Request: fold
Amino acid sequence: MLFARPLAELIAELEKLPGVGPKSAQRLAYHLLKATDADAHRLADSIKNAKAKLRFCNRCQNISENETCEICLDPKRDQTTVCVVAEPRDIAAIERINDYRGQYHVLHGLMSPMDGIGPEQLRIRELINRLGEHQIQEVIVATNPTIEGDATALYLAKLIKPSGITVTRLAHGMPVGGELDYADSATLLSALEYRREM
Reply:
């Protein structure tokens, strides 16, 4: 064995994190071994605390400490517009531009038949139920401009448009194949301002 068993197990667990390959996992593991006991315990406690206390908002499916998230409870937000995103981190990307004041809905993924992910695996049913209960006038589909993002956007448009709600999509100010989480604020603002109806 190249590593002592506890170190090998730590590296293996770190490799499971998105974007962390074998070399990065090794660097992180060695960094953690050099950390003080207090720092290591704080990290472990924060992971346990997040797993124990966080849940999905009962309205928008965003990550929340309470049953309903702060964005959904904010009376100053536009209740007639819902921005649909793939992941909770996409909300942070849109909020950074300080221009969008509507509501959100998180799908928790994108349709990908190759990976066995269809509409049933996403939070689409919750979105449709929500649209029927509230005075929503516009749904902005803010999925990444990828094959999966486009397929999900088209599916949502076909599902929602018959109800008379306007469905728009972010303009292609976003680079094709790009991800919302990595876009700069100017690009996101332009994409949001020049969205088009589907």
In short: Helices lie at 5-15, 22-34, 37-53, 70-73, 88-95, 124-133, 147-160, 185-193. The chain has a mean pLDDT of 91.
